[in-house]
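Just wondering, can you check both lines?
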Amino acid sequence: MKQIFESENISFVEITEELIDDYLMMVNDIENVGRYIGERTEPLTMEQEREWVQKKIREKGPYFSMIEKKSGDFIGNIEFMDVHDGIGELGIAITAAKQNMGYGKEAIRTLVDYGKNVLKLKRMFLKAFPYNARALHVYKECGFVEYDHNGTDIFMEIPEQ
C-alpha cells in the first residue's frame, strides 16, 4: 500500500484491491456504517465492491484508505468526491471497530488541510443524514457549518477564511 500522507495516528494510503475484504466488511455492516452511505439496507457483493475499487483506482481522485499506524488495522475510507473548479465534497466511512476513538475528527481535519494546501480547494462541503447525530457533531467540531437542509440531507461547509 502506498502512503500518500499521514497524521499523528493515521496513514492515508491509496485505495487498493488489497483491502477489498476490509471495505466489504465495513460497508456491509448496515447498522453501523452502511445505512449512513446512501441509506443502504442491503449488503453489497464482492463483485460490486471490486467494481467500486477499480473505478476509484482508474479515476485517480483524492480517495484514501486510512490505516491505524500503531496496529496496521484498517480504519475506513475518506475522500473528496466530484472535485472540480476548486470545489470538493467530503465523504468518510469508518469501520465500526474504529468508531468513537477520535479517528473521524483526526481524519477530517487532516483531509481538510490536504484539500486547502495540496488540492487548493476553495470550497469543501458535505452532506449528512439528519439522524447521523454522531457524524454531525464531529463535522461541527471540525469547523463545518450547516448552510442548507432538505427532508433527506443536511448540507455543511467550511466557511471561507
In short: The longest helix spans residues 103-117. DSSP finds four helices and eight strands in the chain.
